[in-house]
């Protein structure tokens, strides 16, 4: 590890060298145990960032990450971000705007703009030791992460609603940040989180989210990814769900030029449930990827996924869903559905479902559909006087409905609905 | 004389596995304002094709002829413009719209048409009141407003839903493509009432049907026989009776 401690020259051919040399500069000023970061740096030094030959990254090319030279996250003044936050809150409806919130500015928690919840414990955290063989984006996060929070809901408590807002701003040079969020629910506890990511300029937001759901607890997590048009947006969730616990996540991907939302969920107790749903609405040259690895380790668990892609222009949607059913996980119920609506000839969907089943008494199914808007339906609407843009919007909304309906928290679902309507209005104009 | 609806020499083809197939082969038809006309004719003679071409469906290519509606070139208009101008087609096979709420659909349609006609839009409350009243008049269960458009509707329910749309959109020219097929006797009367309610000196209808019964209620001003993409014969209401008694064979032979 000696290359890291000193002032290294970027390793020749290593595509993470830009990040590594910045780490070398920042190493002594970053918070927390430096050994934890060194482990991650050593891995990146050894392996670099994955290229497309790596199976898990076949459809999503990380090249823009190493072709861009990022300068870290410049500090944002709360006074500057305040109006941006207010503008955002004013679009969320009174109930949501009044909710507790954690606000990150370029990856750093803002005490002034956050409003802490009552029944939930919030702590500042620094990277914790993680097992070897890190996910490459997690390694990057672990190496450079400058701030993070741990959200804990004590056993038996309802933590209510919590907004986790990430505002990015990179006006001058490409910036990057690597926030950390850990959410832990005690036995029987519950919490509903709405995560909103948005910003301006060219930046890399690479969040790592750890979820721990104890017995009988329930976490609802909705995410609105509305990052800047030239941003790269990564969020990686590691979730562990205990007996009768449930983790329900919905990712709405609208922004960024390159995005990946990735969930690794482990059902470790009987009758646990995980739902990884999402919608990706893309245009232009956007690429968005929803990747999930769901491990059924215990019997009688349930995992469900409904993912919808609406693709315009030359956009590309990616869905990779892997379900692994371990030998003890009898009576597993696994379901996966990926659907794409291609609104242009050049749009593309890449889907890779994978089932790895070692138990014998399981019910696992997956399906996929790809299609264009139905001309007959479109004509029916037009023949009733509905102009084409409105008719298309209605049909797209109908296509998305059975995914959006899965967002159980109604005020949060409304936010996603509105975001979709706004997205669509932007296209139709 | 400026006609209400005037079709002359209308020809249309459809793409049949790469080569054009001619379906309408010179249709001539005049429908004056305030009249109800009926079209009868064997299966596959082009009746639905005519109704689609009049409402602007793009799969058909018009290769000849003209259609003027209240002095405007109908064929140059987009489907939604035709709807705004007052053309309405009750589909032979109404389309299912999964995920689209029926009341929402109806309100969007009504307001789109009202906007195009420079009339004030209806808010949700006004609209629901109007829709419920019409549904009641058509003996439709108001529950159907809450369901997805035509999804899981029975054949007859779909047809009633078409008539409900017609009632709410208040067209000036309605084409009913076998709206009577698959209806029970009560529903048939309801459909006929739906058309009668719109009857006025400035409303006309073209009723495509295989059955005499609807015409008994409606009493058309003219009956046309269509075969092989053309109007072969036209006459008064007695023509429908004659067809019912004799079938098409005689007409086709006579015209050939
Ligand atoms: N997409 C298509 N490809 C090929 N042929 C078609 C297509 N659509 C319609 N046709 C043909 O055009 C002809 C006219 O069809 P149309 O539906 O207009 O008949 P119709 O008079 O309404 O019949 P029916 O009384 O059975 O409703 C038929 O022979 C039909 O097979
Ligand atoms: Mg027909």
TrEMBL record, chain A:
Entry superkingdom: Bacteria
Annotated ranges, domain SUF system FeS cluster assembly SufBD core: 177-399
One Pfam family hit: SUFBD_core
InterPro entries for the chain: Fe-S_cluster_assembly_SufBD (IPR055346), SUF_FeS_clus_asmbl_SufBD_core (IPR000825), SUF_FeS_clus_asmbl_SufBD_sf (IPR037284), SUF_FeS_clus_asmbl_SufD (IPR011542)
Name of the featured protein: Fe-S cluster assembly protein SufD
Source organism: Rhizosaccharibacter radicis
Higher taxonomy: Bacteria, Pseudomonadati, Pseudomonadota, Alphaproteobacteria, Acetobacterales
UniProtKB/TrEMBL annotation, chain B:
Listed PROSITE patterns: ABC_TRANSPORTER_1, ABC_TRANSPORTER_2
Location of the ABC transporter domain: 5-253
Keywords carried by this UniProt record: ATP-binding, Nucleotide-binding
Cited SUPFAM superfamilies: P-loop containing nucleoside triphosphate hydrolases
Lineage: superkingdom: Bacteria
InterPro entries the UniProt entry points to: AAA+_ATPase, ABC_transporter-like_ATP-bd, ABC_transporter-like_CS, FeS-cluster_ATPase_SufC, P-loop_NTPase
Family per record: Belongs to the ABC transporter superfamily. Ycf16 family.
Name of the protein described by the UniProt record: Fe-S cluster assembly ATPase SufC
Organism: Rhizosaccharibacter radicis
Record lineage: Bacteria, Pseudomonadati, Pseudomonadota, Alphaproteobacteria, Acetobacterales
């Amino acid at each position: 590890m000696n290359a890291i401690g000193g002032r290294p020259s970027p390793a020749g051919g290593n595509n993470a060298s830009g990040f590594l040399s910045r780490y070398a500069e920042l190493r002594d000023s970053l918070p927390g145990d430096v050994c934890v970061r060194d482990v991650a740096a050593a891995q990146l030094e050894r392996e670099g960032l994955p290229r497309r030959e790596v199976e898990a990254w076949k459809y999503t090319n990380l090249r823009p990450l190493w072709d861009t030279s990022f300068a870290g996250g410049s500090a944002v003044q709360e006074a500057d971000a305040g109006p941006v936050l207010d503008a955002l809150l004013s679009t969320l409806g009174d109930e949501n705007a009044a909710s507790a919130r954690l606000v990150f500015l370029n990856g750093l928690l803002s005490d002034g703009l956050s409003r802490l919840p009552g029944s939930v414990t919030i702590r500042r955290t620094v990277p914790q030791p993680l097992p070897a063989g890190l996910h490459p984006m997690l390694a990057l996060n672990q190496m450079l992460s400058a701030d993070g929070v741990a959200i804990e809901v004590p056993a038996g408590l309802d933590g209510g609603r919590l907004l986790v807002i990430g505002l990015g701003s990179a006006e001058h040079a490409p910036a990057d940040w690597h926030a950390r969020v850990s959410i832990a629910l005690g036995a029987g506890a519950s919490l509903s989180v709405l995560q909103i990511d948005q910003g301006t300029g060219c930046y890399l937001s690479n969040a790592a989210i750890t979820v721990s759901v104890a017995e009988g607890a329930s976490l609802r997590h909705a995410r609105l990814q509305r990052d800047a048009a030239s941003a790269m947006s990564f969020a990686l969730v590691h979730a562990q769900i205990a007996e009768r616990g449930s983790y329900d996540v919905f990712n709405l991907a609208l922004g960024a030029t390159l995005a990946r939302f990735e969930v690794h969920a482990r059902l470790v107790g009987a009758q646990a449930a995980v739902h990884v749903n999402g919608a990706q609405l893309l245009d232009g040259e956007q690429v968005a990827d929803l990747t999930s690895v769901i491990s059924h380790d215990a019997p009688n668990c349930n995992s469900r996924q409904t993912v919808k892609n609406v693709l315009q222009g030359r956009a590309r949607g990616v869905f990779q869903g892997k379900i692994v059913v371990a030998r003890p996980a009898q009576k597993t119920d696994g379901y996966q559905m990926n659907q794409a609506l291609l609104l242009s000839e050049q749009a593309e969907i890449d889907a890779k479902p994978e089932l790895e089943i070692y138990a014998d008494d399981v019910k696992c199914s997956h399906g996929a559909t790809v299609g264009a808007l139905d001309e007959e339906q479109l004509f029916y609407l037009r023949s009733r006087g509905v102009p084409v843009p409105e008719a298309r919007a209605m049909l797209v909304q109908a296509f998305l409905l059975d995914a959006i309906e899965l967002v159980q928290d109604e005020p949060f679902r409304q936010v996603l609905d509105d975001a979709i309507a706004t997205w669509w209005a932007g296209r139709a104009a | 004389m400026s006609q209400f609806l005037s079709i002359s020499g209308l020809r249309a083809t459809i793409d049949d596995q790469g080569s054009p197939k001619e379906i309408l082969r010179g249709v001539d038809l005049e429908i004056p304002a305030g009249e109800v006309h009926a079209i009868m004719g064997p299966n596959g003679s082009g009746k639905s094709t005519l109704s689609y071409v009049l409402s602007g469906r793009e799969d058909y290519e018009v290769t000849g002829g003209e259609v003027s509606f209240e002095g405007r070139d109908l064929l140059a208009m987009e489907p939604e413009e035709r709807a705004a101008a007052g053309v309405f087609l009750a589909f032979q096979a109404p389309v299912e719209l999964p995920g689209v709420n029926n009341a929402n659909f109806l309100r969007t349609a009504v307001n789109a048409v009202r906007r195009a006609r420079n009339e004030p839009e209806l808010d949700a409350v006004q609209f629901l009141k109007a829709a419920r009243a019409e549904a009641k008049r058509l003996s439709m269960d108001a529950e159907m407003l809450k369901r997805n458009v035509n999804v899981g509707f029975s054949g007859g329910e779909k047809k009633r839903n078409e008539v409900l749309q017609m009632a709410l959109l208040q067209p000036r020219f309605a084409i009913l493509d076998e709206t009577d097929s698959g209806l029970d006797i009560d529903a048939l009367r309801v459909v006929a009432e739906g058309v009668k309610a719109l009857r006025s000196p400035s409303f006309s209808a073209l009723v495509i049907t295989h059955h005499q019964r609807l015409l008994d209620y409606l009493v058309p001003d003219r009956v046309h026989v269509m075969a092989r993409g053309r109007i072969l014969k036209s006459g008064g209401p007695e023509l429908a009776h004659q067809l019912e008694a004799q079938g098409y064979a005689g007409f086709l032979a006579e015209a050939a």
